[in-house]
Write the structure tokens for this entry.
Amino acid sequence: MQKYLVKILECPKCHGKLDWNITEQSHDRIEVAEARCQDCSSTYPIRDGIAVFLTMDLKRNDLWEQVDNRLDQLLKQYPEMEKRLMDVPLDTLGPVDQWYRGDVHKNRGDVEAADAAYSISYKGLHSAETVRCTENQMDYVINEVSQSKSPIVDLASGSCGLVRRMLKALPNSIVVTDFSPTVLVKNRKWLKKQGLYDRVSLLAFDARQTPFATDSISMLTTLLGLNNIQNPGNLLEELYRIVNGKLLSVSQFYPEDDKENGTLIEEGGLTESCYRNKLIEHFHNAGWAVEVKNSSNIKTIPAPPGVVLEGARVDGLPVQSTYLEWCVLLGTNA
């Protein structure tokens, strides 16, 4: 974690001031430390440069860790399956199996092999039109944030698709965030091996309770992060509190008359996030001024299931072909 963040971090639970006990640091980075709240005495560790600001009062499931553990256990239990996944030419696998092969390589620290697997998998999982559209939306975000020299906080960074693109195009420092420390440990190794770590800080927190002071963030970005949030109203209120500038959210929305995909959306508790008008209403209720930018509609088909990892999927949606609206939601709070 880069040292400049100390000035804008506070207790995510009660917003109290933090006392810092730093035990290992470099000239601009904190590697090992503990932050303790002066008001509620909650403590937050920093280990290997990753700051963990998770609170005990919010329930959450680390699905990334669960998937990794299941995959690891599965391959140990069935060594023949591991051979069929890992010991064959990459281009003989289907796209889902290629993706999970990339996960295995990433977990084992082989960045080049992971990148190769993810790259070929992505093209198989998504149409050329979807790939172009996603890149276009990310480029729109990059053009917007390029007008500022301030640090960028990226929300729900996941596998760092947007982050890596911004690091290559911009000089800004970037805060990579996720509520899963498991994800951030992987990202740290990956970004280091790709030579992209110097301007990065890694923070684990739940976006419903961020560790940032009020009005401390001028640029907040996310790639599909808001589309995967249940009950986004409280989240958008928290983001409104910390942002004094812009929120740029690459988003995709389903047609409200899409019944088959709509059933799964409802079962997943994502009704308020996956439909354009509902999410924009939550923005307005939280105080944001919001505009829809760079909108386009493209046909999207379900990704095929795994073959070696029989029935496995990378994305749960869509379950049937549909037309998705891709856009950037530009929220302002200034």
